[in-house]
């Protein structure tokens, strides 16, 4: 599961970076940016763990998550302009992160013996509620509620994972396919929205 | 306890409907509306369960809650105008829901061995914090903080329940009377506010 | 540990008072003020306990916290103007409260066997997230994110406590010194900000 751990860390890094950049846009100071980066990256998983009763919450057992967020904080402050230019690459990793967080959250919920329907919801919570908490703390209506595709992609990916693991016995392959599902839906959505915007402008 | 379960489901349905209607008013999409409906209906109980350590939280053990919220979502989208016209009937069920959630939350807290004063607070949290979370997520100052009667009615109803069960051994009757207390206080409050508004307008 | 308990109660009283005054400024009613006072005083510790799995959360085992908050509520309503004039004295107790909440939160986290780095974060969460929740519920961007010194002071005080208890075996002295650290940093920060504001005005 080494590749999964590495992807997890990358996902945390990208989510934290997105949180820190939002915080800087809101003129938060260094500590405020660290808190927002932290909550964006680990808030969804924290909420999931609290609700399914897996406490102390997961990230408390692996200090690497803290170092990853600290690295995202420092790099965001040092190379902000360059990172903003990398938005396209960040989008790729962000979507990988969302897909992975969905599946990891789903697996963790299933492992406690809860119903697959609950696991599906908790997978989505893991992936998107970090962003919801970030938006609430920066006093914005959560983006997720107006751009349904984020949550929908998570639910679809989670469903694919549940179906694949039900009928086949290859979990890593199922993870790859379901994360691919999240990726494709989100990628198509961004293109679709783009043309939608063009039409709306006429 | 069949009647209690049926009232519980009706309460969840009415709360979810109120959440979905608020979400539609805020131009949230379908997924956003589902999330807000869900949180309005189950957010208070979730918060209570997390705080008193009853995790995984209660609704995770009964998928019927999910179906109920899904039904509320679909019906709210299909028959929005007709539901808005039913506001008076909704108010009745909403108040029954608040009364029931208060007592169920109180009972669940007492069952963990906590102090009745804590159970009283947790009953109120169960009944009103779903609405508080809805308001926070739609970026409004929670209504509850300016219309004290919601929370006060819960506390009064909870107190009546505690006193009745202390001196008599008939729990269902105590539930009915304390829910009636919540109902009467809220009903009178709505009338009182109405005349207050009339006076304020002069 | 009697002195610690007394300071804890004083801290809760001062935090609750600050919450109630904010609520009154926002034209919240009595119940709304009670809820905001409660969350300001006990929200940080509640969040910490939930995350580290110490549930039912701490204040549920000691009804004195409720009485303390009730006292803060009543006194704030009766003597609002006089309390506002006491702001300087309140600041002293507020900072003592922040220092104490940091150390108590840190100790409680360490006691569950978690890493000192996690305990440091949880100490900070205990001290400042009550204020964050108050700001979110009154629909403001949390002050803490723009005035880094609150959180920084907590982290510094927590670090001093960790180092002192690692090398010396006198916990009460370590508490006193680390709370003094929080106090001095915050006191200096207020003076520094003051002159900063003067400069910014030119």
UniProtKB/TrEMBL annotation, chains A, B, C:
InterPro entries attached here? Gly_transporter (IPR005115)
| Cell location | Cell membrane
UniProt keyword terms in alphabetical order: Cell membrane, Membrane, Transmembrane, Transmembrane helix
One GO CC annotation: plasma membrane
The UniProt entry, under Pfam families, shows: Gly_transporter (PF03458)
**What sections of the protein cross the membrane?**
6-23, 30-47, 59-79, 91-111, 117-137, 149-168, 174-194
How this chain sits in the membrane, per its record, is: Multi-pass membrane protein
Please indicate if the UniProt record lists Chloroplast as a keyword: no
Question: Ranges for the Glycine transporter domain?
Answer: 5-80, 92-165
Q: Which domain of life is it from?
A: Bacteria
What family does the database annotate? Belongs to the UPF0126 family.
Name it.
Answer: Trimeric intracellular cation channel family protein
Species of the source: Cryomorpha ignava
């Amino acid at each position: 599961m080494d590749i999964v751990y590495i992807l997890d860390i990358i996902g945390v890094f990208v989510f934290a970076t997105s949180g820190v950049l939002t915080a800087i846009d809101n003129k938060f100071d260094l500590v405020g940016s660290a808190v927002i980066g932290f909550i964006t990256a680990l808030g969804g998983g924290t909420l999931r763990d609290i609700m399914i009763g897996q406490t102390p919450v997961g990230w408390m057992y692996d200090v690497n998550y803290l170092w990853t967020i600290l690295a995202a904080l420092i790099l965001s402050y040092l190379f902000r302009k360059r990172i903003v230019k990398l938005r396209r690459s960040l989008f790729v990793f962000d979507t990988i992160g969302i897909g992975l967080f969905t599946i990891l959250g789903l697996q963790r919920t299933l492992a406690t013996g809860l119903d697959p329907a609950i696991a599906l919801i908790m997978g989505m919570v893991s992936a998107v509620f970090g962003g919801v908490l970030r938006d609430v703390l920066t006093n914005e209506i959560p983006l997720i509620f107006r751009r349904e595709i984020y949550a929908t992609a998570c639910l679809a990916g989670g469903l694919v994972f549940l179906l694949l693991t039900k009928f086949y016995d290859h979990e890593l392959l199922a993870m790859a396919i379901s994360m691919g599902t999240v990726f494709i839906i989100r990628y198509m959505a961004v293109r679709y929205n783009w043309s939608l915007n063009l039409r709306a402008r006429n």
